[in-house]
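Let's practice the habit of predicting before peeking. Look at the sequence and jot down your guess about where helices and strands might fall. Then scroll down.
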Amino acid sequence: MNKQTPAWVDAEMYPFANKYISIDGQTMHYIDEGQGDVILFVHGTPSWSFEWRHLIKALSANHRCIAPDHIGFGLSEKPRDYNYISQQHAENLAVFIAALDLKDITLVVHDFGGPIGLNYAVKYADNIKKLVILNTWMWDSHTMPGFEKSAKILKSPLIPFLYKYLNFSAKYAIPISFGNKKLLTKSIHAMYTKPFGSAAERMGTLGFVKSLLNEQDWFETLWQQVENICNKPTLFIWGMKDVFLTEKYLEKFEHKFSNKKTLQLPDAGHFPQEEGVGEIEKEVVEFLQ
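Done guessing? Here is the structure:
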């Protein structure tokens, strides 16, 4: 399946060969770089495989690095009418893994990629070798500090307008999420906003808002199965200035996982893989060895 790469993609920052597969009747984009043990990267919102570029460049010399774009994100198809909820993306990921026959996976997850990817991990733990977990969660957030306040904001009737017509998630939430905003250059920020060029292409980001409001019970079912993976070798990488998923989220993970190592980045926000370039790659390489 061949498609022309959009002109807005910066080939210097994102120098990967584009691959496509049909998942759930939609065209899903992914990259598949290098050879060796499988590392599967799962992104969140408002993001795509671009967020993993530094790690993929560092690891693909000795590993097979695979990073899909969820339907509605990145270079994947963005249908106007689609079931853009976390459970659907999780089902898509399981189909994707089976279609590529991926085995003995090191799973790397961030943001909504956490529940999406860890859903697979708790169900197919025997196929998971190691875990790398960045600023995410996998439980009902009602008990977490600040969630109820955030939920009230997300319930506002203005939210669909802001997300669809102002590209709020990519244009405004990403800058807020950085600990050091100087690291979010115009060229990098453009690579996060350009995939959502029109209102019709922004339904995926709005779908994740609905997930936060309506899927908390499903998130909690994942946490009830955490014993299936809590002994796996796990590397936590956390931006400690994350205004959305604070250190309390990290502490909850750390309390459960026994075979773990943690890299805290005190000055980084929600995207530590953007703000801790160099340090993170070194830590992951050592963890995989």
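How did you do? DSSP finds twelve helices and eight strands in the chain.
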